[in-house]
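INTERNAL AUDIT FORM
Audit reference: QA-55
Scope: verify that the stored structure record matches its stored sequence.
Auditor: D.O.
Record contents follow.
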Amino acid sequence: MPEPFVRLHLPNLDELGVDWPDVRGLITEYNRLAAEYRAASGALEALLASRPAAIENDRAAYAEAIRAGKADPGESNLSKLNTRVTSANRKAEALAAAVQSTARDIAAAVEGRRAALLHDVDQALGEDRDALAHAVTAWVAARTRLDQHRALRSWIDLFPGRTKWIPTVTTPVRGFDTANGEPLSFPELAQALRADAEPAPAAEPAA
């Protein structure tokens, strides 16, 4: 039985929020057919694995008939199994062909509209980077406010024993360590996050 093109790992376009109904429909069809093929292939393997038991059952029935002085009962168990195997194999091969055909259709759909699809993704990437930049700005503002309130609490707790008000002290960011094992400072992480939100200097690398 030929191995179909069932190892594709395709994106979930609904989760990614792109409006490509033609590609999405083909991906949905492919995933359904690939799942049906895997189920049919498993069922076929199970039937083939039961062949020794069927042969043994027919042998036992023949032995019993000989002892009873009766005619050969034939290979009824094996015959029934072979019929099921033939049907299961035919189904698996048909599903394999359907999976291969759908995979080719997906490739044709992507190749035929590659420029338009890339344009859509590039637009989504720009929106993502804008959202990420705003999220970084909001995080920096919230973290700065947190450090200011920490400083205020320290001042209240120690005043007037400590008279100096230090509003700009920032604490390290927990959970992020440098290569030396030292906690990463808030300014360092903020700078890294801002850089990460900026557009790449060249085209986005292929994943």
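Auditor finding: record pair retrieved intact. The radius of gyration is 33 Å.
Action required: none
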